[in-house]
Design a protein that fits this description.
The complex is a heterodimer of chains A (517) and B (316). Chain A is built from 15 helices and 21 strands. By secondary structure, chain A is of the alpha+beta class. Chain A has 3 domains: 29-40 and 187-261 and 488-515, Periplasmic binding protein-like II (D-Maltodextrin-Binding Protein, domain 2), CATH 3.40.190; 49-170, D-Maltodextrin-Binding Protein, domain 2; 262-486, Dipeptide-binding Protein, domain 3. Mean pLDDT of chain A is 90; it is low at 9-31. Chain B has 316 residues and is mainly alpha-helical. Helix content of chain B is 76%, strand content 0%. Chain B has 13 helices and no strands. Chain B has helices spanning 2-29, 34-44, 52-61, 68-80, 94-129, 134-148, 151-165, 178-207, 210-217, 222-250, 254-259, 265-274, 278-306. Chain B starts with a helix and ends in a 10-residue tail after the last helix. Classes of the chains: A alpha+beta (517), B mainly alpha (316). Chains A and B meet through helix 1, helix 4, helix 6, helix 12 and strand 18 of A and helix 2, helix 3, helix 5, helix 7 and helix 8 of B.
Chain lengths: 517, 316
């Protein structure tokens, strides 16, 4: 008995000793050939392009979509070289010749048909973006797509990562995904479903510029502090969104560099326009003037982002760059509140009207780390003009549910403005009276302009219509734009030629990225 | 003995079924309607507004418009046939995901409990034997620190000092043996502190018993008194606590799994709860309830080994 317990203790000791002495970390090795190790910000459980296309197309560079975008969000050829609407509901896409999947099979119309049909069956969102009814292979390089209703955003929606094309050999005979076999500049060698780690190697047969990197590795590190530490230690070469308050320090660490960019997402405050005081445009404008956007970006977001003037960030093809926005002006805010009948008549520091003080609640969610502290900053800024704002942090689905029941005041979120790169998509879902009933915005002129913007084919006309909508939105301020969403990328100094692509959802590597020792 | 084991196993089944019914019910009480939540977490993105067509499609796909009892019956009918269904979010079999994640959790649980025992047991005994000495105070204060320190903070401190500072272990991941050390130490610190305190107080309790006095009166050496007579008796409460700790660890540890990017079952469960991934949550709860019940059974059986006065399954 005694001997046995002694031996158990000894065994444990031996195990622990080997654990502690065989130390010495596993560093990202780049022996001769160029390997880039990326610390990914989300947990990776799923590498199906139909539901996690952002990962396979933008981060792992395995799959590609038919339509590409320039950095200003204008569409450009990708796997499809041209497209044309041949009838209100019918489109013809011509495929790029000489493109091969990673398994050597050619990219042809049949393959595209199979891939698109698979995507719309799996992900209902892709069906609502594209409105695809049928996909037919007219010949080897021509795909004819019909939609259930006229959809001038079909090309833009075929840029969406969920529609990126995979070969039918990606799935087994039961239709279950084995691994995504795409046309991109990297092919997937290994995926560990328990850790989420992915290993890719360069596709030497790539139709475009072959990547300068030989290997690409993605490691899922969902904790932002861990990502920063792993980069400092040298376990990863590149990562996205370390904690905002660490950016300055990381930038000063020897051998590291930090880059700040903006992406097509805007922090906004929506209001319940069906209820007082938000149904009064003067109150909304007063609130907009009361927000010190510059200070929020500097102090809350640590410079990661920019003060918002309108729904779209500058640099997008359809952004109305003439908008002036609402610069911080607490005096003007107070004046507008007075004009609207809100005065501090009882001297308690809170404005009131007909004996009722202005007490409102702002809801937001913690999944985007900038939101809760931003809500607190808005609370303090509103206080200065006499608005008593209470903040409530909850899960985003809880917030949606409360708002859908109609009993709410304000909610703050970070809303994607180019899920599909179209000048009407985001305006339509957020401001069209038939789509966003929750905020209760109802403007016949806006509805008409958005409807027009969605059907016209001429890009310039589309952009002009979108710009007109943005101007009306500035005059009416049904939603308060607060800040454009910033993306921080941090990498080793030896990572070369990384150019941020604003159309990427988090970050996107290009074939020019390389490592210079 | 065997009858006892059989009875306990039968009770385990009841516990598991009860747990699954409770989980199923509570999941439907949390805010957010099920199809919208699934859409947001699995398909369209957290901030997107789902269209009516999308909601209809998901409701039909997962038969979410059926009454709850029907949905539960469908799940349990499959489950008893060994089919836990497919995850809504990951779209792969639940059993497969659990099989991939559970080993990492079990390994971490076993090693961290072992490490905590290795430190806590000798320390607890020493503190009890040298009661009120400097060593005792030091041990108790350290234990207080270890148990009060939030595990995420300890985790970062360990990474900063032993990974960044001394370059001994990797920051995160589950790749090599060294990557086990920091998560193990993080978990063991809190558990070890509790175990040490229990060990000490239990030991003190035993040392004041009459039979210890008798042993001393017989003229036994103090080491003999402690190791032969006191220790075995003092172990009972310790085993109870360690059993609970181990059971708890087998349910995964969300914070440590997040900080160290550890592919365990705790984070999987939490993420699935947020996403209302009902089959995934049910599968995890099933596993956790079963392991917990099993560990408790083992603890009860070990009492009989340690204390001959305890006998199961016989009328006394």
């Amino acid at each position: 008995m005694k001997k046995r317990s002694l031996s158990i203790v000894l065994c444990i000791l031996v195990v622990l000793l080997t654990l502690s002495t065989s130390g010495c970390g596993t560093k990202a090795v780049s022996s001769g050939n160029q390997t880039l190790v990326v610390g990914e910000m989300w947990k990776i459980n799923n590498i199906d392009p139909a539901t996690n296309g952002t990962l396979t197309m933008e981060k792992a560079l395995i799959t590609e979509s038919l339509v590409g975008t320039k950095p200003n969000f204008e569409l450009e050829p990708n796997l499809a070289t041209e497209w044309k609407r041949i009838a209100p509901n019918t489109w013809k896409f011509t495929l790029r010749k000489e493109v091969k999947f990673h398994d050597g099979t050619p990219l042809n119309a049949e393959a595209v048909k199979w891939s698109l049909m698979r995507a719309i069956t799996i992900n209902p969102q892709i069906l609502s973006f594209t409105k695809i009814k049928t996909v037919e292979a007219e010949n080897d390089t021509t795909v004819v797509i019909t939609t259930t209703t006229p959809n001038s955003d079909l090309p833009a929606s075929l840029h969406y990562a969920g529609t990126s094309i995979i070969a039918s050999s990606s799935v087994d005979k039961d239709g279950k995904l084995i691994k995504p076999i795409g046309t991109g500049s990297f092919k997937l060698d290994q995926f560990d479903p328990s850790t989420g780690d992915m290993k890719m190697s360069k596709n030497t047969q790539y139709w475009g510029t072959v990547s300068k990197l030989d290997k690409l590795e993605i490691r899922a590190l969902p904790d932002p502090n861990t990502r920063a530490l792993a980069l400092e230690k040298g376990e990863i070469d590149f990562t996205c969104d370390p904690p905002y308050n660490e950016l300055e320090r990381l930038g000063k660490v020897n051998g590291l560099k930090v880059q700040l960019d903006k992406t097509a997402r805007t922090y906004i405050i929506e209001m319940n326009l069906n209820e007082a005081p938000f149904n009064d445009v003067k109150v909304r404008k007063a609130m907009s003037y009361a927000v010190d956007r510059e200070s929020i970006v500097k102090n809350v977001l640590f410079g990661c982002g920019a003060a918002a003037k309108g729904p779209y960030m500058p640099g997008m093809a359809w952004t109305n760059e003439t908008l002036k926005g609402y610069p911080y002006d607490p005096e003007k805010a107070k004046q507008l509140l007075t004009e609207a009948g809100w005065k501090d008549s009882d001297g308690d520091g809170i404005v009131d009207k007909n004996g009722k003080p202005m007490k409102i609640t702002l809801m937001t969610y913690p999944q985007r780390p900038g939101l809760p502290p931003m809500a607190e900053a808005v609370q303090a800024q509103f206080k200065k003009v006499g608005i008593d704002l209470k903040t409530e942090i909850m899960d985003s689905t809880a917030m949606t549910e409360i708002a859908s029941k109609g009993k709410w005041d304000m909610k703050m979120s970070a809303f994607a403005t180019a899920m599909i790169p179209s000048p009407s998509y985001h305006l339509n879902i957020l401001y069209h009276s038939k789509n966003n009933k929750v905020i209760g915005y109802n403007n016949a002129e806006i509805d008409k302009l958005i409807d027009q913007c969605m059907v016209v084919d001429d890009q310039k006309e589309k952009y002009d219509l979108s710009k007109r909508v943005q101007q009306i939105l500035e005059d009416e301020e049904p939603v308060l734009p607060i800040a454009y969403y910033g993306v921080a990328t941090a990498m080793k100094s030896k990572v070369n030629n990384f150019v941020f692509n604003p159309t990427a959802h988090d970050y996107m590597l290009t074939n020019e990225v390389n490592i210079k020792e | 003995m065997w009858r006892f084991i059989f009875k306990r196993l039968a009770a385990t089944i009841l516990v598991v079924v009860a747990a699954s019914i409770l989980t199923f019910g509570i999941l439907h009480l949390t805010p957010g309607t099920t199809p919208v939540t699934i859409l947001k977490y699995a398909f369209i993105g957290l901030e997107e507004i789902p269209t009516d067509a999308e909601i209809t499609e998901i409701t039909a796909r997962y038969k979410l418009s059926d009454p709850l009892y029907k949905q539960y019956y469908r799940w349990i009918k499959q489950a008893v046939q060994g089919n836990l269904g497919d995850s809504y979010v990951y779209r792969v079999p639940v059993a497969e995901l659990i099989r991939l994640r559970f080993p990492a959790t079990a390994l971490l649980a076993a090693l961290s409990v072992a490490l905590s025992l290795l430190i806590a047991i000798p320390l607890g005994i020493l503190c009890a034997v040298k009661r009120n000495s400097f060593f005792d105070h030091l041990g108790r204060i350290s234990a207080l620190f270890a148990v009060s320190m939030p595990s995420f903070w300890l985790a970062y401190l360990l990474i900063i000092s032993f990974s960044l500072g001394f370059d001994l272990f990797p920051v995160a991941g589950f790749r090599s043996v060294p990557s086990l050390v920091l998560p193990c130490v993080t978990l063991a610190a809190g558990m070890g502190a509790v175990t040490m305190r229990i060990m000490r107080s239990s030991m003190l309790d035993v040392m004041s018993q009459d039979y210890i006095l008798t042993a001393r009166a017989k003229g036994l050496y103090e080491t003999g008194v402690v190791s032969k007579h006191a220790l075995k008796n003092a172990f009972l409460p310790v085993v109870t606590v360690v059993g609970l700790q181990f059971g708890h660890m087998l349910g995964g540890s969300v914070i440590v799994e997040t900080v160290f990017a550890w592919p365990g079952i705790g984070k999987l469960l939490i993420d699935s709860i947020f996403a209302k991934d009902i089959p995934m949550v049910q599968g995890c709860i099933l596993l956790i309830a079963m392991t917990y019940a099993l560990v408790n059974l083992l603890v009860d059986l070990s009492y009989a080994l340690m204390d001959p006065r305890i006998r199961y399954g016989r009328e006394s």
